[in-house]
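Note to self: keep these together.
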Amino acid sequence: MREKIDPIKMIVLDVDGVLTDAGLIIGTGGLEIMKFNVQDGAGIALARRAGYRVGIISGRLSDLILRRAELLGIEEVYHGRFHKLPAYEEILKKYHYKDSEICYMGDDILDLPIIRRAGFSVAVANAVREVKVEADYITKLPGGNGAVREVLDLILDVSGKKRQVIEALLKEEERELIP
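Structure:
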């Protein structure tokens, strides 16, 4: 596991079925609701503090994805990308990364091209069988219910960065609370 995790510089996530539980509520007048997991968001914040870049590649074109990414400080957002591999290759080119430096989390068939290339590929527990068969790791938790946090905690634990990030975060909060 360490051989797969040590080179990682960036975590790239699918949205539907990974950051969400794959549910979507559509109402009248263009109302669209997606539910995100707060602990996944906290994990993303910890990973960013540890020096990892985080990106999103989604087949869905949605302002909700942009809003969630903005709230989490995720700068690399590719949405409305039915075929995800070109977006992945844009990321590699932009940062001069190799496949081995990417962790990718997906759940469905359109994620397979990246699952097959990423250095550490992850299928969420609710992923389709074809993705699970090709992934390096399958989460215990389903997408939208802590799967992202599970993987980010694993990466931070294996890399030895988790304790340092948490301690720095707690000290930072203490400074802010005590004038």
